[in-house]
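Researcher: Please translate sequence to structure tokens.
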Amino acid sequence: MKGIVVLPYAVPGVVAAVGLIRAYSSGPLNISGTAYILLGAYFVVVLPYMYQGIRNSLLTVSAGPLLAAAELLGASRMRAFASVILPNIWPGVLVSALLSFSVLFGEFVMTNMLVGGQIQTIQVYLYRRMGESGHLASAIAITYFAFILILSALLMKLGQKVNGGMKR
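Model: Translation complete:
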């Protein structure tokens, strides 16, 4: 599983985009150039980051023995996961989500090739504005950076709040 999940690291964005366009441009689906193909491509790009982060968190907390202990104490499997395992792996989930969001926010090649001018993502918008005005492009890039910085700070505070609640 680990080898399959990290496979998107080996495929450049251009190759992945061309492969997806070729696969979905004909046949019964014919979703080429739509947001659906972009969402599917984003899922494949994010999968390694989410898998590795959550996997490492599960290995760190010894999820199997914790789950078994909670079940021995009378909790159902879902209740044990929700009240014992999930709070322990929450920091790993937050870090994985933030890393995945950052990677997708910076992805331009695949986004531009898959949807082009049909859907204007922040990457495509920034690229188009670079040709018009350097000042506008700089303002967009700085706003973009500030947004990511604020989002990162909020997620870090949320992670500290969750960790602080576990230590008590």
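Researcher: Any highlights?
Model: The radius of gyration is 20 Å.
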